[in-house]
Amino acid sequence: MTTTPLDERFVEPRLRDRLIVRPEIGALLGAVVVFGFFALVTDKFFSASGAATWLDDAATLGIMAVAVSLLMVGGEFDLSAGVMTASTSLVTAILATSAGWNVWLALLVSLVFALAVGAFNGWLVMKTGLPSFIVTLGTFLALQGLNLGVTRLVTGTVQVSGLRSTDGYASAGFVFASTVDVGGTPFQISILWWVGAAAVASWLLVRTRFGNWIFAVGGSAPSSRAVGVPVVRTKVLLFTGTALAAWLVGSINILRFATVQANQGIGLEFQYIIAAVIGGCLLTGGFGSAVGAAIGALIFGMARQGIVFAGWDSDWFMLFLGVMLLAAVLVNNAFRRRAERVRR
What we know:
Layout: H1 15-20, H2 25-41, H3 48-73, H4 81-97, H5 103-128, H6 132-155, E1 159-161, H7 169-177, E2 179-182, E3 185-188, H8 190-207, H9 209-219, H10 221-226, H11 231-257, E4 259-261, H12 268-278, H13 290-309, H14 316-343
Antiparallel strand pairs: 1-4, 2-3
C-alpha cells in the first residue's frame, strides 16, 4: 500500500515558521532581554513606580514611532517629525496665551496646521520625485526657523508658558495629560494613547486594503501603480498620519508641562526612526510592523530609565542605542531572508 505525499501548500506551517515571518519578533526578544537585565540589576525597575516611569518615557516616543513605522513600510522618511511636535505645541500655546483663545480651539488650529504640513510634505515628494529625506529635511529647517522666529516675535523669548490659566485647559489637560491610578500608582494617560495608536496602526497595516497599499508602495511604487494602487494618495496619507501623531505628542507635552521651548523636538526624529528599525522596519521599505515599533519604543524607555535606576552615567544610553541599532538591522535582515524562504 502506498501513500500519496501531502501537498506542502496544504500543510499547516510550524510554529517556528509562523513566528519567523513576523517582523516584530526580534524586537520582542530584545525587549525580554532588556527587561530581564534591568530587573536583575535594580529592584526599582520592577516596581510599580518604576514601571510607570519607563512606560511614561516610552509613550510619546512610541506614538511617533508607530506612525513613522507606517511611513517607513511605505518606503519614505520624515525628518521633520521631531520638530513638528514642538511646532504644534507652540501654535497651541501662542493662540491660547497670547491671543486668548480657548485651548480646544487652539488645539484644533494646531491640528489643521500639522495636517497641512504633512500633506504638503507628501504632495511635494510625489510631485517632484525628490527623496523624502531631502524634502522633509527642508521642512525640518523651515519649521525650526519658524518656531524660533515667531516665538521670539510674539513673546520676546524662546519659550511660551502660562497655559494653565487659560480657558479650556482643565478639560483638555484631562484628555491629554491626566493620570490613571492603578493600585495606588499614577500612570500617565499618554500610555493609553500609545497603546491605542499602536492598535489602530496595526489594524490598518494588517487588516485593511490601505495596509496592503502601504506594503505595495513600499515594495515597488511603479509596480503598485501598474496594478491600480493609488500611490500618491497612499503616500500623502502616510505623511499626514505622521503629522497627526506629532500633533498628538505635541498636545500631550504642552498640556502636561504647560510650557514649551522653541527648540524642542530637534533630534528626536532619529529616535523615532531607530525605534521603528528596532521594531522590524527595513530602511528600504516594504517590510515592518507597527507593533514592533511600539516595542522598539518600549526598549528605549526601559533602557533609558533602567540606566538611571542603576545609577549609571546616562552617557551609556547612547552606546546602548548604537549597539541596538546595529543589532536590529542585522537581526531584521536575517529574519527577512528567513521569512522569504518560509513563504516560498
